[in-house]
Design goal:
By secondary structure, this protein is mainly beta. It folds into ten domains: about 90 residues, Immunoglobulin-like; about 80 residues, Immunoglobulin-like (Sandwich), CATH 2.60.40; about 80 residues, Immunoglobulins (Immunoglobulin-like, Sandwich); about 80 residues, Immunoglobulin-like (Sandwich), CATH 2.60.40.10; about 80 residues, Sandwich (Immunoglobulin-like), CATH 2.60.40; about 70 residues, Immunoglobulins (Immunoglobulin-like, Sandwich), CATH 2.60.40; about 80 residues, Immunoglobulins (Immunoglobulin-like), CATH 2.60.40; about 80 residues, Immunoglobulins (Immunoglobulin-like); and more. Helices cover about 0% and strands about 55% of the residues. It has one helix and 86 strands. The strands form 20 sheets. The chain has an eight-stranded mixed β-sheet, with no helix packed on it. Strand 25 and strand 26 form a beta hairpin.
């Protein structure tokens, strides 16, 4: 495969990035004077021009923080971030930042549509970002909305257009488009989307949001029981009162246009409804026997019992319609709490934790070195006999029944904390992380961010931190607000990798990867065909999730943090390359050219005017097809198929396909043939055929050159009364139809030949007039030897039978019927000798016509010595 050579392209921005100037003025406020382009999707590279960029620490697109590279004091190249919003571009340093005068426009984004159902003409509110008044289009399943307005950069109010059908809503601005994940349903049926609250007794007012509510004509039912009070405040909102007699179940809405039911169960009825439970002293759902517990909810008046996992409370100390307080009984165990009234029994949705065994709810800090004091909260700590850190016993002090202070023991390792009393042992499921005296990072506030963004690190022993590194690159700005926290800015040149903290007591690297937005330095080659390999070099490729060429996903391998190898996919076309990682997107400023690829063609040889089918990839938009450099007429049938006509004046060589993205030629040579002298010759197995016998033609088609002959076709037109029996060809294929035998011999090279054996069967006597003919794709300088007409006589047995008759003792007559063969008569004196001499006796032969019968006769003298006669073909 050969590909047309392309110029050695490089990104214009790359040379800018490498041209860093010295003597940067520090301490002056950066200002933006211009940028290009003025709009773009996330990943777009934007060249920003201004002043005092040398000490820049952040670049913002609207409110979105961008990754960037400082080229010099007057120029920065920034990558449009995923969170970019319509607004000014601002370059920020420790001295502040002055935004440019113009707005940068990212593609629109849709966060919410209210409602998601409506009729033609209904008003729909779309929330999102980057909406431009007068320059934003909205379509409902492909139908453009003609009435509406951008009320803010984050909101559009639009009417459902005539002709709209159920489907996606798409918003388009000059920078791109956004499609909402949920379909908008064009329907007049009402819809409930949410209900607040989801629990309440009869008389509770409930707020419902949805669509297609009609004032004065909307009914609400709570599990089938109609509400007597429904107020529609807007087509998308109503208020309803829970009716008496309602029970737990779904809420339905009905209008003249139909009825729908919300799937969420609304909890109501006369039984107690418990919405919250907590220890009155601690505010947690945990309590020892004797603790007072508060339950909030509805329908508590007339409470007759409160039970803790089936055990009656020691006392019910307070009852109102919405709150009950009870004391945990001595034998209570962990489980639900129930409240009973005359209206029924209600239970908590979650378990209340109680009993006599110890139970640790939490501990602080969650990390520390040996000798660190850890405060453990919980219940039933009185009489604690042991506290263990991952099995290692610790010294401790139970400061109250609900609190213990324990000292992390020497030899402890990371793991859970357990507490033991005479009533049992409890192990908290959370791990305590044991560190040394050096720093220890437990986590990051975010797993990714551009340079200049701030990351909060949590852990231990951060006091006196001397360095924070992102992928090995030191942060230039960090601050330890406590021994367990550090705020650090992602530095210029930061690399995707782990974060480390260094103090005078050591260094610790968290194994979790922090992702920095990718930077692409080179694409090599910058153009190739489908199936070709492209190598990307740059930085922060680890964790890459996608590589696309003009939207077509490419298979790829991350070789390292600085290199990716990808294969151009079959559906790729020329366009921008898009690299996606967990930290962001990078779009190449220029386009990656997907050049055509010629895989094969058929036929592989032929003269001018031959139609050639070319198969390959990326043929769409082809501008030329050339046969060894000579332009041909062609038709593009698809991205993978072209038909071209071999042009006059072309010579043998490669076939090249040209598109706006480049060109490609197949390594196989197409052979252009010129003139070939074909010679048709034949022999017959029998020169005379008896009726009932097959006639065999042995035919040879030879090429006397000088060129290869293609498209060679032999035809034999059989006369009436002659039937086809069989045939054999040394190459190609053959057929018989409508009295014509055809042999498609294909290609015959110079100096070679093809043979044909043809068997036919005549039905009557007479001459068989056999017409043979040759055709070929090339011109033939001697066409006279391309055809032949053959006459084969066919006779009956009678027509070759001699008879003899004596008319007297002196005369005998020899006779035979007339036929198409002019047989001659021969005589011999004897047959016994091995050297029989036959003598022609045609003199004296006469022809006698008797009506339609013609007979040939010879009169012999019977007195002479005997003679033998026979017929000889002429």
């Amino acid at each position: 495969m050969r590909m047309a050579r392309r110029p050695n392209l490089s990104f214009h921005w790359l040379s800018v990035l490498l041209a860093c100037a010295g003597g940067v003025a520090m301490g002056q406020t950066p200002s933006v004077s211009s940028f290009t382009p003025a709009l773009g999707a996330p990943g777009t590279q934007v060249a920003i021009t201004g002043a005092n960029f040398g000490n820049a620490t952040r670049v913002q697109f609207g409110t979105g923080l961008a990754d960037f590279l400082v080229a010099n004091a007057n120029q920065i190249v920034a990558t449009v971030p995923n969170g970019a919003t319509l607004g000014k571009i601002t370059v920020i340093s420790s001295s502040g930042g002055l935004p440019g005068a113009a707005d940068f426009l990212p593609p629109p984004a849709i966060t919410n549509i209210t409602p998601l159902r409506g009729v033609v003409g209904a008003t729909i509110v779309i929330d999102g970002a980057n909406f431009v008044n007068g320059a934003t289009a909205v379509t409902f399943n492909g139908v453009a909305a003609t009435s509406g307005a951008v009320t803010a950069p984050t909101q559009i109010s639009v009417q459902v257009p005539a002709g709209a059908t159920t489907g996606p809503i798409v918003i388009v601005n000059a920078a791109g488009s956004a499609t909402h994940a949920a379909h908008f349903v064009v329907s007049a049926e009402p819809l409930i989307t949410d209900i607040t609250p989801l629990i309440g007794p009869a008389g509770t007012e409930v707020l419902m949001n949805g669509a297609n509510f009609i004032a004065g004509a909307t009914a609400i039912r709570f599990n089938g029981v109609a509400s007597g009070s429904v107020t529609v405040t807007a087509p998308t909102q109503l208020r309803a009162i829970v009716p008496a007699g309602a029970t737990n179940g779904p809420v339905s809405v009905t209008t003249s246009s139909g009825s729908t039911t919300n799937a969420t169960v609304f909890l109501t009825g006369t039984q107690p409804l418990i919405t919250n439970v907590f220890n009155s002293a601690t505010g947690t759902p945990v309590g020892s026997p004797g603790a007072t517990v508060t339950l909030d909810g509805f329908n508590f008046l007339g409470t007759t019992s409160v039970r803790f996992n089936g055990v009656a409370a020691s006392a019910i100390t307070s009852v109102t319609a919405n709150r009950v307080q009870a004391v945990v009984p001595a034998t209570a165990t962990t489980g639900p709490i129930t409240v009973t009234t005359a209206g029924g029994t209600g239970a908590t949705a979650t378990n209340f934790i109680t009993g006599t065994a110890p139970f640790a709810t939490d501990f602080t800090p969650a990390i520390g070195a040996p000798d660190t004091i850890v405060t453990i909260n919980g219940i039933n700590f009185t009489g604690t006999s042991a506290v263990r850190f991952n099995g290692v016993a610790a010294s401790f002090s139970a400061t109250a029944a609900t609190q213990i202070q324990a000292t992390v023991p020497v030899g402890a390792t990371t793991g859970p904390i357990s507490i033991t009393t005479s009533a049992g042992t409890h192990t908290n499921p959370a791990n305590f992380t044991v560190t040394g005296t050096g720093p220890f990072i437990t986590g990051y506030s975010t797993t990714n961010g551009p340079r200049g963004s701030t990351v909060l690190l949590t852990g231990a022993n951060f006091t006196g931190a001397t360095a924070v590194r992102f992928g090995g690159v030191a942060s230039t700005n960090f601050f330890s607000s406590a021994a367990s926290q550090i705020s650090a800015d992602v530095p210029p040149g930061a690399l995707t990798g782990p974060i480390s903290v260094t103090t005078p007591l050591g260094s610790h690297t968290n194994p979790a990867t922090f992702f920095v937005p990718p930077q692409l330095a080179a694409v090599a080659p910058f153009g190739t065909n489908v199936g070709g390999t492209i190598v990307l070099t740059g930085a922060n490729f680890t964790g890459a999730t996608a590589v696309e060429i003009n939207g077509a996903a490419a298979p790829f391998t991350v070789n390292s943090n600085s290199q990716i190898t990808l294969t151009v996919p079959t559906n790729a076309t020329t366009g921008q390359l898009r690299l996606v990682t967990p930290a962001g997107v990078f779009l190449t400023p220029g386009t990656v050219a997907v050049t055509p690829r010629v895989d094969s063609f058929t036929p592989t040889l032929g003269p001018a005017t031959t139609s050639v089918s070319i198969l390959g990839r990326t043929f769409t938009g082809a501008t030329a097809v050339r046969f060894n450099g000579v332009n041909a007429s062609f038709t593009v049938h698809s991205a993978t198929n072209i038909t071209a006509t071999v042009p006059a004046g072309s010579s043998s060589g490669p076939i090249t396909v040209v598109t706006p993205s480049g060109s490609s030629a197949n390594a196989t040579t197409f052979t252009v043939t010129t003139t070939a002298d074909l010679v048709l010759s034949y022999t017959n197995a029998l020169s005379i055929v008896q009726l009932g016998q097959n006639i065999q033609f042995n035919i040879t088609v030879s090429n006397a050159g000088p060129s290869i002959a293609t498209g060679v076709v032999f035809t034999d037109t059989l006369p009436a009364g002659v039937g086809f029996v069989s045939a054999f060809t040394s190459q190609g294929s053959h057929s018989f139809a409508n009295s014509v035998f055809t042999a498609n011999l294909g290609v015959i090279t110079n100096g070679s030949a093809a043979t044909i054996t043809l068997l036919v069967l005549p039905a009557t006597d007479g001459f068989v007039n056999n017409q043979m003919n040759l055709t070929l794709a090339e011109s033939d300088p001697n066409t006279f030897n391309n055809f032949n007409t053959v006459l084969i006589p066919v006779i009956t047995v009678a027509q070759r039978t001699l008879s003899i008759q004596l008319f007297s003792a002196q005369q005998a007559q020899v006779s035979w019927p007339f036929s198409v063969v002019n047989f001659a008569l021969e005589a011999a004196a004897a047959l016994a000798s091995s050297n029989v001499v036959w003598v022609d006796v045609s003199a004296g032969v006469t022809q006698v016509t008797n009506g339609s019968v013609i007979t040939r006769r010879f009169n012999d003298d019977a007195t002479q010595p005997q003679r033998f006669y026979r017929l000889r073909s002429p």
